[in-house]
Specification:
The complex is a heterodimer of chains A (103) and B (700). Chain A is mainly α and 103 residues long. In chain A, 75% of the residues lie in helices and 0% in strands. Chain A has 3 helices and no strands. In chain A, α1 (6-26) runs antiparallel to α2 (30-54) and α2 packs antiparallel against α3 (60-90). The mean pLDDT of chain A is 88. Chain B has 700 residues and is mainly alpha-helical. Chain B is 71% helix and 3% strand. Chain B has 26 helices and 2 strands. Chain B has helices at 3-27, 35-59, 92-115, 122-141, 145-163, 170-201, 206-214, 223-240, 249-252, 258-267, 269-279, 286-307, 313-333, 337-364, 377-380, 382-396, 402-421, 425-449, 456-461, 467-478, 496-500, 540-572, 579-585, 587-594, 599-671, 678-696; strands at residues 64-76, 80-90. Chain B has a two-stranded antiparallel ribbon with strand order 1-2. In chain B, β1 and β2 form a beta hairpin. Chain B starts with a helix and ends with a helix. Mean pLDDT of chain B is 85; it is low at 523-527 and 530-536. The chains are: A mainly alpha (103), B mainly alpha (700).
Chain lengths: 103, 700
């Protein structure tokens, strides 16, 4: 079994980030877009923890990761509320059709 | 009784008719009997006037004057202290004139109650009489040129209103207009004359101006200016007193009601001109006096010749009035201002009587004025006839009547003037006119009252006028006798009237006087008369000439008057010679006289036509040139505005539109990026981030 180093974590997080971004850009469903955002936040968390483990930063990375989790929770709460309102207004949650602001 | 009370009384006399005018004008329609109020005012006035006159003549030999500052301009640049004063003054001449005006006005008021009865504008008529009396009294009382001028215009106005009283008739309306316009010419001259004096002395007051002239302060330092001022002021009298060449309005003024002709156009207003030049006599230079005398003699001659042939009873009287006014003016011109005023008063009485008498005839004949349709009225209207005859005898210059005294005085002074200066033509024409006057007046009486009635229908309806009309006639007839003025029936010199007229001392410089008016400097010790040596108009020389002239003039005028009367009897009473035959033997002269010397035609073809043609020319000029210029400038403006509108439309608007178009164009392009889709924005953000990475990669 090869030695697992920092590079592996970074690659994983990059892949995760790219998948999240892809989801955010491509998916129509607002819930799925939110999920993409979660993926991107979590890839960042992995980066924090990995750099904390392999660097000499003490527990700063873990602390930041905790903050991001809290932030993600708050974000999810607000975003879901918005999505609920979108649904109430449009009777669907397709983000590409929610372009009323254009007019 | 102090003099100031007399001033207050005369102010009341002055303003009462104004109150009457306003009251009757405002309420006359509602209360049809209100004209009695106006008559009452005049009755009050005449009583007050008699009182003032007696007080003044008996106890106040000096002039009483009272004036106040009307406008104080303070210190005016280039002029100095300047204030305009108004005031009234009472001299003997003033109070006598006051009496004449009020008396005749009162009599005319009474007379009109019957004559104007039933007229649709009856109370309007009385209110006009009120304003006329007010303005006339203003002229009489004024002690300065300004006030005199103001009232001068006011009498012009009331004369205009009363001549055109029956304005439904075109001829009456035209006559009013003619009188007004003709008077304006004279008044303009008068105003210029007043301004010459005002420019020099900064005051309008007679006394102040005369004192300045007496002290040797001549307008612009030249006697010619004094002459000019005199002649210009006399122009006012030419207009108002109907002197040649402005006499044409007076005969036309007969279109007004007959009592008006008696009051305004015979006795008072037309005499205002004479009154004025009598009042300012002292400052006329010899040249000005000569002009006055010549104008007067021309007027009296021209109008006497016209009166010979007129057939309208009022026209004869009108021309006779003009002629007698010419006499008065001539008398002032030859220096006999006292006889001028005397004649003014006597003439006022007997001429008012003649007009009222003719009014009575016209009333009886149902407004027939043509003498050729009258005749034989003596039996029907005895009171009118005898009073009328009295006045006729007076105007013809028969002894024992007032006219003889005043006329004889005037003729004697022209005779003396002729002998002193050599201008003999003036007395010669004066005597001729006296003969003609006697002729045409008796022609009038004989045609109207004697002989067979020519229009039987009207004759049968004729009757004596009611007492309201005959009482004034009788009053005036009494005043036409000599005894009113002097006990001596052949010479007025010792009578009270002439003695009460103040002697006026001419004040112009010696060089500008007639020779006989020049002062003889008497050394103090030889001055027996106890008079200081001042400018005595009655120099020894003059008195001598007057004395010499008295009897020849009297005899000559008597002879001429009797000849005139005789001639009238031959032609119109005994019918020895037919008047038509004489007229046919001198057709040119006859037509000349009948058509009033063609004055109207002459004025019509020169001044009126000239004015009309000029105004036509000016109207064409207006239409073509002025309007053309205005229209041209309008067109040019329009053109300019079109050009600038095009500039606006294409250049300015173009620029604005271009900017808008540019903005729209860019907006159109960039609008594409604003899709409204969240994912697009994220994509864009990511792409931008990547680009930034690529750019900043070399720096890492």
């Amino acid at each position: 079994m090869p030695h697992v180093g920092l590079t592996h974590f970074l690659v994983i997080s990059s892949i995760l980030f790219s998948l999240g971004l892809y989801a955010v850009i491509v998916r129509k469903n607002a819930i799925l877009v939110l999920m993409g955002i979660e993926l991107m936040l979590n890839s960042a968390n992995i980066n924090f923890v990995a750099f904390a483990h392999f660097g000499r930063f003490g527990l700063d990375g873990q602390m930041m990761a905790l903050f991001v989790i809290v932030l993600a929770a708050a974000e999810a709460a607000i975003a879901l509320a918005i999505v609920l309102n979108i649904y109430k207004t449009f009777l669907h949650i397709n983000v590409d059709e929610v372009d009323k602001l254009k007019e | 009784m102090p003099g100031s009370n007399l001033i207050s009384l005369s102010l009341i006399i002055l303003f009462l008719p104004l109150i009457g005018f306003i009251t009757v004008l405002l309420f006359g329609k509602r209360f049809s009997k209100l004209y009695n109020f106006e008559i009452g005012i005049l009755a009050t006035n005449i009583i007050l006037t008699i009182f003032v006159m007696f007080q003044k003549l008996m106890y106040f030999p000096e002039k009483i004057a009272n004036r106040f500052t009307w406008i104080n301009f303070g210190n005016v640049p280039f002029v100095g202290e300047l204030k305009v004063e108004l005031g009234i003054e009472l001299t003997n001449v003033t109070v006598l004139m006051l009496f004449v005006v009020n008396l005749i006005s009162f009599l005319v008021h009474v007379y009109s109650t019957k004559y104007m009865e039933g007229d649709i504008r009856f109370s309007r008529y009385y209110s006009y009489l009120g304003i006329f009396t007010f303005s006339m009294l203003g002229i009489v009382l004024a002690d300065n040129f300004l006030m005199m001028y103001i009232f001068w215009e006011l009498v012009g106005l009331s004369s205009y209103l009363l001549i055109g009283f029956w304005y439904e008739k075109d001829s009456a309306a035209d006559a009013g207009k003619k009188a007004f316009l003709t008077n304006r010419i004279g008044d303009m001259g008068m105003w210029l004359g007043i301004l010459i004096l005002f420019t020099n002395y900064h005051t309008f007051t007679f006394d102040t101006i005369f004192e300045a002239i007496n002290a040797g302060n001549i307008p612009f330092g030249d006697n010619a200016w004094l002459t000019a001022a005199g002649i210009l002021i006399f122009l006012g009298a030419i207009g108002k007193s109907a002197q040649f060449p402005l006499h044409v309005w007076l005969p036309d003024a007969m279109e007004g009601p007959t009592p008006i002709s008696a009051l305004i156009h015979a006795a008072t207003m037309v005499a205002a001109g004479v009154y004025m030049i009598v009042k300012v006599f002292a400052f006329f230079t010899a040249d000005a006096l000569l002009v006055i005398a010549v104008i007067g003699v021309l007027t009296s001659f021209i109008s006497a010749t016209i009166a010979l042939t007129q057939n309208d009873i009022k026209k004869v009287l009108a021309y006779s009035t003009v002629s007698q006014l010419g006499y008065m003016v001539m008398a002032v011109g030859v220096g006999a201002y006292q006889y001028a005023f005397f004649h003014l008063v006597t003439h006022a009485f007997f001429k008012a009587l003649l007009f009222l008498g003719s009014g009575s005839v016209i009333y009886a004949m149902h407004h027939e004025q043509d003498m050729r349709k009258m005749g034989g009225l003596k039996k029907k209207m005895p009171i009118t006839y005898y009073t009328f005859l009295t006045a006729t005898l007076a105007i013809s210059g028969v002894p024992f009547f007032s006219g003889f005294l005043s006329k004889d005085g005037i003729l004697a002074s022209t005779y003396a003037f002729g002998s002193l200066t050599g201008y003999w033509l003036i007395p010669i024409i004066g005597f001729l006119v006296a003969g003609m006057t006697a002729f045409y007046m008796f022609r009038l009486v004989l045609m109207t009252f004697h002989g067979e009635p020519r229009d039987h229908h009207k004759y049968d309806h004729a009757h004596e006028s009611p007492w309201a009309m005959t009482i004034p006639l009788i009053t005036l007839a009494v005043l036409s006798f000599w005894i009113v003025f002097t006990p001596n029936p052949v010479s007025p010199d010792a009578g009270w009237f002439l003695n009460k007229i103040e002697t006026q001392f001419t004040i112009v410089p010696q060089a500008a006087r007639f020779e006989f008016m020049q002062t003889e400097v008497v050394p103090v010790e030889e001055n027996h008369t106890n008079q200081t040596e001042h400018a005595i108009i009655h120099s020894e020389h003059y008195m001598h000439a007057m004395h010499e002239a008295h009897y020849p003039a009297m005899i000559l005028s008597l002879v001429l008057a009797s000849l005139g009367i005789l001639f009238a009897f031959v032609l119109y009473y005994w019918n020895k010679v037919s008047a038509d035959k004489i007229a046919n033997s001198i057709p040119f002269l006859y037509r000349f006289s009948l058509n009033k010397w063609f004055f109207d035609e002459f004025y019509h073809s020169t001044f009126i036509r000239g004015t009309l043609e000029t105004s036509k020319g000016l109207s064409v000029f207006d239409g073509k040139v002025i309007d053309g210029a205005v229209n041209g400038s309008a067109t040019v403006t329009q053109l300019f505005s079109k050009i600038s509108s095009l500039f606006d439309q294409y250049v300015v608007d173009g620029l604005v539109n271009l900017t808008a178009f540019k903005m729209g164009f860019f907006g159109f392009i960039f609008k594409k990026t604003q899709t409204g889709r969240v994912q697009n924005y994220i994509l864009l953000a990511i792409l931008s981030l990547i680009i930034l990475f690529i750019i900043f990669l070399p720096f890492f």
